[in-house]
Amino acid sequence: MALVVQKFGGTSVGDADRIRAVADHIARTRRHGDQVVVVVSAMGKTTDELLRLADDVSAVQPPRELDMLLTSGERVSMALMCMALADQQVDAVSFTGSQAGIITDTAHTRAKIQEVRGDRLRQALADGRVPVVAGFQGVSTERDVTTLGRGGSDTTAVALAAALGADACEIYTDVTGVFSADPRVVPQARRLSRLSFEEMLDIAASGGRVLALRSVEFARNHHVPLHVRSSFTWEPGTWVVEEEPTMENAVVTAVTHDTSEAKITVTGVPDRPGLAARLFRALAERSVNVDMIVQNVSQHGTTDISFTVPKVDVASSVEVARNLAAEIGAGEVVADTEVAKVSLVGAGMRSHPGVSATMFQTLADEGINIDMISTSTIRVTCVVRADAVERAVQALHRAFELDTF
Ligand code: ADP
Ligand code: ASP
Ligand code: MG
Questions:
Q1: Any bridge partners for residue 226, and if so which?
Q2: What is the pTM of this model?
Q3: Residues lining ligand 3 (ion), CB within 5 A?
Q4: How far does the centroid of ligand 2 lie from the alpha carbon of residue 161, in Å?
């Protein structure tokens, strides 16, 4: 008898019919003899709607209250799922993140899991019941309700799988697995049947939102095999697993894109040791996740520093940068929100020089200008204009011969 964690995303539980279809699948898994722990997201676009509602009500949104609001979405799903399971004669019991023993730090809206107690889930399993857990939430060490950041139900699922020693964590979504590019942008994208944690980490980090980055980190650190698959067709999807020594690595596995970041430039920064450190320290203290950083070579005693940050952090980042610029006598601080990142990810890149050159040439042939570049051992990322990013993804997917037809 295996123990599996099954997580269902927003579209998978988007309406009453979907909830009943999922309950039917869970009932089948039980009849097959396996133990199941279920994790659910909020129905459809509920989280976005709650955020809009908050915007309509107030410009001031204390993070604690925002978390209290957003966690309600997943509560609705878990209760309805237990009702649908009862209708299938499956004895199920719902738990909020707090009741499931998911303890986080106190960073509201982006909390990190510190510990998973899970006693009530173990007890429910021992009693032959199916625990249904509200994803995306926990309770802080200060006993406040917290959320784990957008897409956080994936992280809940993997954390529970690790804590309960599950045999696998199945992530059910609205596509049939992880593809060589977002299938909404590249209809010819191919489904990847097997992927290493390392590649999946870079895919998630560079915009492939099919799995939340934190969940992949958790799975790698705790050796939880992930199976990303469809709750519409139920066919086998993509396994994300530890890399095997024999794994034949493709040069480029996936082309990803990300429109969630903005670029900030600080001009005329005096060329002295320690100034970059002060800027990025100040941003880190505001919990801003700085991604790419480019500093130009100084010619006249000053330099420009550009970096990317999540769009939601633009206002606070600009404020931090303007304060510092005034202190040190730097020039302007400019924010550009009309940018996007396009990346190539592939473990085989390590041993194949020339990937970056082909990428830059492909973009040049499309007349797409590159704003910033960064590379790691298995990824190359370019910042381009937002309105050109889909064209960039399609051209690169073709250039690296990833198209299936
Ligand atoms: P869920 O609500 O189930 O968590 P998400 O919307 O978070 O679903 O993630 C699934 C979506 O991720 C897909 O609909 C797809 O458009 C998008 N996506 C982006 N990149 C990829 C990729 N490389 N492979 C598969 N899906 C991707
Ligand atoms: N409902 C949350 C979100 O939309 C969490 C999740 O779906 O994973 O981000
Ligand atoms: Mg998701």
A1: 169, 240
A2: 0.94
A3: 9, 151
A4: 18
